[in-house]
């Protein structure tokens, strides 16, 4: 037994107004204010209460159950043909489906794809808002007949079974309910209005929505009851043991009655006092107070977490890591300078191996690889090859120098120096971007509970900010 059948069996045991509500929820998934109003009318009618408008009742029936395996048979949809009164689709056209795999249907806008889709959704009872199927509005003779179509299916061992469908309530063949039709509109059945996708067994959402509807109807009925005028009998009972209203007759003293009906200053003070007492009870409601305290606790926990994370960035392990990175970068730079001095002392120009020289060398390398010799590996020292900077033909000494320079740049220590420098710069960038993220409003909220704690918080933030500046300054000045 599938969920649709289970729901149907359960719904027939519920009050009539709930049966109608279940039908609306199952077919539309999301009920609107009109549905709420109509279900409320049906509820009142069922219990003999007056309503301004009489609303017809439509319980959930077998015809509404679809897309949920109505029976255990294997059904294959093979063709949709002989469409009548479906948009501008000709009656002699058909849409064939592959018996295995995926069938891709494509075409220009207004070529008829949506027309076939509407028929499929309506006939197979897809959940969600159903779109109305209109006849051809461009036809000279407008048809008032409903849309029609023929479905060709395989059912178990029976081949090419023809099923007739008309766009009339209750006329869809039961076999078609075993075919699930899903598009962007049907997707809204399974995704709530916050776009947060979550799993629920198919059809279970009916119970959740029905429960929410019951709560809403309870509120509407309670509001109506509270605004009903009080009958005279209740007014008489509220007067008390004196029953002054019952004693009024032709001989009653009018002035005495007026004096008893006057609203005195004492009455006004009593009313103000009573309203104040009610307001205090509402404001000091334990549940409400508990909720406020829990929310405050969560905010203060968030402040603590922000301060702890910021502190970790500039103290203890992180600070030690900065020291290590700085030392490693400085050692690599000194080693590179020593190697450069040793390698380039004999060169005709001073400054070879320096940072400025490296930038020049890398620019020459990029120029050679992009423009001069894009097909060859740098440095190019073939016969008649030229320098990418001065464009002179390289002699043997120049070729040997280019190869030596390239080898130096490619040496391990050079790469190591570049990597350690990059690693240090990354750590500096992360430290620069780090922040406590605590606003003045959050500190003031802490002050509402404890001014001393708020002052400690401000002091800690200032100390940590100063410590961050000191670390950055120490790195910059070695």
Describe the 3D structure:
Residues 193-197 have low confidence and may be disordered. Strand 3 (148-155) and strand 4 form a beta hairpin. The protein has a four-stranded antiparallel sheet with strand order 2-1-3-4, with helices on one face. It has helices spanning 3-11, 16-28, 33-46, 113-123, 184-187, 205-226, 232-239, 244-247, 254-261, 265-283, 286-314, 317-344, 355-372, 396-410, 412-433, 440-449, 451-476, and strands spanning 75-84, 94-96, 148-155, 158-166. Helix 2 packs antiparallel against helix 3. By secondary structure, the protein is of the alpha+beta class. The chain contains 17 helices and four strands. The two termini are 77 Å apart. The protein is flat.
Jot down its keywords:
54% helix, alpha+beta, 4-stranded antiparallel beta sheet, flat, 478 residues
Mean of all residue-level pLDDT scores: 78
Distance between the termini: 77 Å
Assembly type of the chains comes to: single chain
The total count of strands amounts to 4
Q: Which structural class fits the helix and strand makeup?
A: alpha+beta
What share of residues is helical? 40-55%
Approximately how much beta-strand content do the residues carry?
Answer: 5-15%
Q: Mind summarizing the main beta sheet?
A: 4 strands, antiparallel
Order of helices and strands: HHHEEHEEHHHHHHHHHHHHH
